[in-house]
What does this fold into?
Amino acid sequence: MTMLRAALAAPLVMLLLACSPALNWREVALQRSSAHALLPCKPERATRSVPLGGVATELAVVGCDAAGATFAVMTASAPAGASPDAVLAGWQQATLANMQADAAQVQRSDFRPTGGLPLAHAQRIVAQGRRADGRAVAAQAVWSAHPAPEGGGIELLHAVVYAERADPVAADAFFAGLGW
It folds into this structure.
C-alpha cells in the first residue's frame, strides 16, 4: 500500500516542483514565428544572423535565467525547397559541438509538439558538456519544424535548458509549453 501511495504521489510532487516560486511561467510571443512558448521568467530578446543549412539566417532568440538554469527558445525560417530535417540535423550538431558534448553519450528521443512535422531530427536530447569557460553543463534541448503559414517555407524551432545539473521536471514543463 505504501508503494501505491508513493506511485500516486510522484506526479503531484513533480507538478509542484515545476510550479515552484523560482519558476514563474508565462506565455511568450515568439518573433517572426507562429510558434508559442512558456518561459519560467521574464524574457530577454535578441536577433542575430547565423548559418543554418549553409545559408545566413536571421535567428530570433528569447530567453531568461531562473532556478539556476538558462531557458532559451530560438526561431528561424527556412525557404521553400530547403530540407528542414537536414537543417535540424546541422543545428543539433552545432549545438552539441559548441558545448563540447560527447556524442556517444547523448540521449535522444522523438519530439513533436502540437503542429510539429514528423522529421527524423525533430528530437529531444539530453547531453553533458562544457561551457566556454570549461565548467560542466547539462543540456536538455529540442528541435522541431512546422510549415510556414505564408510563403511556402518552413518555421524552425529550437529550445534548450542549460544548467549545472539536468532538471527533467522543469525541462518537461518548458518543452510542454512549445507548439504552433
